[in-house]
Design brief:
The protein is an alpha+beta fold. The protein is built from two helices and two strands. Strand 1 and strand 2 form a beta hairpin. The longest helix is centred in the last third of the chain and has 23 residues. About 0% of the residues are buried.
């Protein structure tokens, strides 16, 4: 599968790839460069249903209070998990 990069820097993800990965409109595409290659991690689309406090323990301050803080926490968890994987391969 080959895609040409547009003047705006965009590419189209092949339909077969989208279907295989379960990529849906509205999902968040987290991008980063790993060893000189582009890595894209697809996260579920944000929703408006509040889950504030779902994992909250009584007497403990919430760790995140905004969607931006939640997104940052998710990205940090992904980075940490992948660093642990890379460390285990050595």
């Amino acid at each position: 599968m080959v895609s040409q990069v547009s003047q705006r820097g965009q590419i189209t993800i092949d339909r077969a790839v989208r279907e295989k990965l379960g990529v849906q409109p509205g999902m968040v595409a987290y991008q980063r460069v790993v060893d000189g290659r582009l890595e894209v991690i697809f996260l579920p689309a944000p929703h408006r249903r509040s889950q504030f406090g779902a994992f909250h323990r009584e007497g403990e301050a919430p760790k995140v209070t905004t969607s931006e803080e939640l997104e940052q926490a998710v990205m940090e968890a992904i980075d940490e998990a992948q660093q642990n994987e890379e460390g285990g391969r050595g």
